[in-house]
Model the fold of this input.
Amino acid sequence: MDNVTATARKSRYDAGVMKYKEMGYFDLDYQPKETDILALFRITPQDGVDPEEAAAAVAGESSTATWTVVWTDRLTACEKYRAKCYRVDPVPGQEGQYFAAIAYDLDLFEPGSIVNLSASIIGNVFGFKPLKALRLEDMRLPVAYVKTFDGPATGIVVERERLDKFGRPLLGATVKPKLGLSGRNYGRVVYEALKGGLDFTKDDENINSQPFMHWRDRFLYCMEAVNRAQAMTGEVKGSYLNVSAATMEDMYERAEFAKELGSAIVMIDLVIGYTAIQSMAKWARRNDMILHLHRAGHSTYTRQKSHGVSFRVIAKWMRLAGVDHIHAGTVVGKLEGDPFTTRGYYDVCREMYNPMRLEHGIFFDQDWAGLRRMMPVASGGIHAGQMHQLLDLLGEDCVLQFGGGTIGHPMGIAAGATANRVALEAMVLARNEGRDILAEGPAILHAAARRCTPLAQALEVWKDVTFNYSSTDTPDFVPTLTPA
Amino acid sequence: MHITQGTFSFLPALSDEQITAQAKYCLEKGWSLNIEFTDDPHPRNTYWEMWGTPMFDLKDPAGLMYELAECRKVHAGRAYIRVSAFDATPGWESLRLSFITDRPAEEPGFMLERQERGGRMIAYTTRAYAADRPAGARY
Amino acid sequence: MDANPDTKIDLDAAYLRSGVAEILDELDRELVGLRPVKLRIREIAARLLIDRLRREFGAGGQAPTLHMSFTGNPGTGKTTVALRMADILHRLGYIRTNQLVSVTRDDLVGQYIGHTAPKTKEILKKAMGGVLFIDEAYYLYRPENERDYGQESIEILLQVMEQRRDDLVVILAGYADRMDRFFTANPGFRSRVAHHIDFPDYGDEELFAIAEKMLASQHDRFDDGAAAAFRDYIAARRRQPHFANARSIRNALDRARLRQAVRLFEGRGRPMPVSDLITLVADDILRSRVFDHARAEEQP
Done:
């Protein structure tokens, strides 16, 4: 046995090219350790490429390998540092696609760094020629690694305690039109929406500091509106002030100003990058600020099933990074979102432990090791008439953002806000009373509308609006009955 | 003025039957119920006065309704009363529902005071008109 | 709904539907003796069923008073029957949760000023929706001490028994004579208690049957000698102080099992049939001190 190993070793390090499978990146007998980081890839090999070799190549290229044998491997504990593909399965119903599960030793990664994690796992390998396409579907982050991150500073529980709002989804709206309003007009929308009954208003992802409205102006007017609305209602209100900017210095300056003005929450965009996100999360933690993340740009790589990174992976990374709010889809609104896949995202945000659930796209058990729950945000093309579906699909621990569904109300912004709030409270009340809100939803809304004209108007105006397109990012597994 | 703190403030005042139904929901979830009251409605007044200690181990909403009736005998019309539900499971350990059941006969609302500072900045203070009078004599 | 006197009512169907029959049958099967008690329970169940039907058909008044008093010596089955009573009330819809909270004075009455009201109320709130069973209720009332906190508890109890009849059924339990004095001194309780049930002492044969049931539930048995010895034991034990009916039987069997274990252990070293492990013999019974006392009484 010793002899065999010795011979294998000798030839393993002869100069030249050899198959990844034979270089130690493929081992179906490997038992992942509890401390390993696990990744599940969907691989589509080029025609004629052996799927196992392709999977081994992904393991190799995302860890220590290069295209040829290097003797310098022998200056390292190379066995330990090689990622190991330990499983390859054909994707059900998708010819030419395979799921490859790969295990990475924890010491391959810098503690507490999403940038390092992502540079390893998705750094080079996605352009690898022998693959037509590659998608990172899911990851299992071991407790040992999770514990190197702070996670959300407030998350669902502390945010609710700070806002003194319990037992129902929070209500928000993105100020519309997205672009062109002056600071003074922008603040008007914020004031009306908050006074009418929303908890939050929100800057859109591309509201930064443009010629029509500079950021200081926006912050000052928004905070006037927030404070006025708070005094008018006796209720804590907020407006996500987008501090995304060209440099970290700019972002810190804007965030500091928001804090000085007494804002409870600031906002960043996913496109600012993982380092900037982690920096802002640490800033928010130091400054008692809720941090809202708009997932701007994610659909460029999350939407197509064959290539890119699943949003559930992004959601996991963002929970580690420590954002408090994250946009996670609406199912019923205008943006991509299969109900089961979206359910998986929400579980990643909100549960303390995610069991493997293939039908929701969750491929691994994930223990969050006490990291706080993130508040998912549902935004884009939703309105009061869908309240029963939203509450049923998304539950109560989320933010429902009705932008057009508030500001587009025929009787004005405050009326739109009131319609949404009454619809929401009536639905939560009914659900808690044990009523079947999916079946009785429309009746519950119409009953509430009899005492609330703005709701009656909203139901009438948007009664036929639905976005029934089929989703692209759907689960590959459907629940089936198995004989006991 | 009608303050909109709590889960159901945009709906008509809840009847006893409706409060009972919400309490039943909370008990079925394993949460414990608590009654609080205050005559300081400031949105950041976190610590309302507790009407006794939280009711752990209730099996039926009748226990809550009994205490609510007792609390109303003393405070109805002169204070806000709210019912909250506490969840002690790990990762929550916080309120899961909190709604106002009773309000003072009149709610005078809040004054927003502005203190001008440099650079167009304003320091805001929200002050309840009712808080001009001493606690206990506000409503 | 107005009652139409010609509407036909299927009482049998209503009885079956309620599921009360099963509980009454169980009561008959599982509890030895207690004939008058079982009779009273049947009466009460019938009365409540009819009452519910009357109200279903619009011919009833307000909900009946359901508070009860169970009197009798210790070990006569009061707690067991109270549990079954909770079952019956639950099946008939008179209580919402099938629970019985069993308390004594110490659970209700506080140690210092201001302690009693919250303590009593906490118990009442926990029991609401079901049945509150107060064992030896008369200890709440201590006229010899005029500053006793028990009085405060009594007042809260009376108020809740009267005003929250839909939320709570109270069963007061204890010795018959003391309970009588308690009711005389606290007429408020007497007027709020609708059903009085008296639990008689068990006869010797009944106690023997109870012993056999207890043994069977543990897969144990008497051999012939032990059976005869245990009959003697019952007769002797009854004449001695602190006799507590079924409870005394349970204690006697526990001690007999202990002596059996010692006997088997001391005889170790030779092969033993499995049946020895589950059989009590005469000696296990006869070595009880009860017989010493009995012999001592006979000698002078």
Q: What stands out?
A: Chain C has 14 helices and seven strands. The longest helix of chain C spans residues 35-56. The beta strands of chain C are 68-72, 100-103, 131-135, 169-174, 195-199, 221-222, 279-280.
